[in-house]
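Sample A.
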Amino acid sequence: MTAFAIPAAMMVASGSIHAVVNAIVKGGRSSAADPLHARMVARGSTDGASAVVLLPAAAFVAWPHGAEHWLLASAAVHLVYLYAMIRTYALADLSAAYPVMRGSAPLLTAAISIGLFGERIATTASAGIALIGAAILTLVLGRHLDARALGWALLTGASTALYTIADARGVRAAPSPASYIVWDFVLIGSISVAMFASLTRGRLFRDLRAQWRPGAAAGVLSVATYGVALWAYALGPTAPLAALRETGMVTALVIATLFLREAVTGRRAAAVGGILAGAALILAG
């Protein structure tokens, strides 16, 4: 087993869990008819639950000395990411928006990590990253996604790439991966709840009473999906690992087909094949 196999497996698992979390956020409900408000409640409850789950662990891990600037950068970008995400889900279906958000992110992550930070990856891995991004983006073809939803989805993908870079650098600079992971979740969960409580003029807390069960489940899953991803970034190169996380789209399509009885079109089958082929190229590199 190569050194890359372990973080690669961690990323594949992380991607599958991530699709479930996004489905919960998209399906969030509230007492308000406004779909934007409902998404805010769902996301705020998810991030708040993640922070609560890991807050006790903050007493047992060191403050991430040497990685504070990356932690703060990640938190700042997450504000943009979270808001762009809920605006996207208020305007578009999950099946239309999710591929754009996830498909654009690994391509931008690769461009930044290689071009700006000089990370080196094999030619086959580069081809695999491009193939995964292209395969996911083909899922958007023929789906209704108006200009506003597309703009918010692309902003979500761009901010995903930026916080991925910040967190990958931060988790390596911290005294231990655990210290960065714990404080990252506590900080981002806190600012997420504060932002959405402000935007909803405090109604977030009233609606949390009805949303806390799915929010708690999504919060625990968020700790699992991104905690595993951050640990993987501490063990391997950013660009190929970020791309491997997007193999979760295969899980999303399998669930949609088997449990939601959605049709298996030729485009979907080709996209799944492209994602798996891209993952194989990355692993071969």
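Sample B.
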Amino acid sequence: MNSTFKIYSAINELPASWDQVTESNVFLQTPYLKVLEESAPTNMQCFYIGIFEDNNLIGVALAQYLNVHKLESFGERDKCFKTAIRNFVFKNFASHVLFLGNNMITGQNGYVFNKPMDFKHISNLLIQCSEAIIKYFKEKGIKIHIVSFKDFYQHCSDELKKYDFANMHDFNIQPNMIFELQPEWKSETDYVAAFSKKYRDQYKRSHKKCEGVEVKELCYEEILSHEERIYELYHYVAKNAPFNTFFLAKDHFSTFKKQLQEDLRVSGYFLDGKLVGFHTILLNGETLETYFLGYDEHVQKEKMLYLNMLYNMTKFGIENGFKKIIFGRTALEIKSSIGAQPVLMSGFIYHTNKLINKHIDKIFKRLEPNVDWQQRHPFK
């Protein structure tokens, strides 16, 4: 099969049929891509790839270049020698990173085709695209250090490994926490009734703790008026993550709401009239995607805000007929306590320096933040 591809760096250059090809994934449609274009992290540049057959658009892919040099912090939670080493390595040997896929979210959101494609062809196309972008940066005097392809569900990863990805280091970092909602749950009451006593008690206790906190869905104008505070709450959580490769732009949430309107919901948590937390969810077909959130550290501890946010997102998913909720990669244990299950996702990585690449598996293991956690089983 003869396919060609074209790489675009601006949304207004995209082919007219782009959104027809990407209708199955909101993260590859132009409203979301416009959000990336208008308010991507300051150290990120996006590329939009059109894949053609006989001049017809049949697939699209997303690539992101990250300049790690521009990052204020890689994550400040783990103050230790390993973190210092990791920061040194990233600054000097991994500061120019190319992702094929979306580094800002968890899930297989890197490419989509409107017709069946064999994995041999997909692997070949993805590698050709990455090489074209590496060449583009080389001509600008920038050497890409690391190329990473992310995220793939296990069966896709196994297939890709049979072809052009065979010589690349494949890695599994923390699993994606996915909650498959039961079709018989029609309300939050049905969901809570399915818990064993221990987890029903957890639910009641957390709700009691959260008394006095008002939860309110924010419209575009309210997001704008609370923008500084929303960013402050987001930034606190992001900075305290074990590892970071980007920070969102300050106007990210208002830009997102303006572009996606009803497909993005932002809920504010208010205590005595003051915004003390927020969560965001994205409606993606039959899947509810959790996006970024933020909270005031002191209120979170006292009011169990984070756990209540997880319950609230689940309630929204159930009441609005979603089939599953993607909760992403952080806070695995607490997410499993509300019903989410770990799903392994793989990525592929290589270093453009052959000597470093020979040892990439050992290096990667040392740099990767370790996470020990215990899976909870909340249902009867």
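B remarks: Residues 74-78 have pLDDT under 50 and may be disordered. The radius of gyration is 21 Å.
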